[in-house]
Amino acid sequence: MAITMIDPVEVTNKEFEESHLFNKLKKIVVVARVFENQTDNRSLMHSVSSFDLDAPEIYNQVKADYDLIRSTIRDQGFSELSGIMGKLIQPRTKGAGHGSTSRAFYARTGFVSHILGKGHLVPLPSK
Q1: Would you say residue 125 lies in a domain?
Q2: Can you give the pTM of this predicted structure?
């Protein structure tokens, strides 16, 4: 799940608590939908969940992931970011095709599951 784009200048200059990533994650509502096909003619809602960074272990790991990405940009350069970085949050290319240079913060699959497991879940509509 894409969270927000990575602006290397902002990430280099801002601590986690001042970052756009933190502002996005400190309180969010996630609407999960059912993927039917590429044409995307309609979108069925699967569930709705709220999430915040109140749990210290989640907060600390997201901060550690951000700090790793930040130090990599600062010490090695933006091009050295890799999708293997981070335990909960990873930097990945964003955009169509290979060779894309823009990157975004993505929630790893386990983190998405955690986010969707919290809060109120809306049941699937019956036919």
Answers
A1: no
A2: 0.83
- Residue 42 C-beta-side C-alpha neighbours within 13 Å: 3
Q: Give the integer Cα–Cα distance in Å for 108 and 106.
A: 6
pLDDT tens-digit readout, 1-20 = 999 999 999 999 999 999 99
**Residue 65 amino acid letter:** D
Are 88 and 62 contacting, i.e. CB atoms less than 8 angstroms apart? yes
User: Bridge partners of 2?
Assistant: 106
Sign of CA dihedral 16, 22, 26, 31: negative
Cα distance between residue 30 and residue 12, in whole Å: 28
Number of compact structural domains in the chain: 1
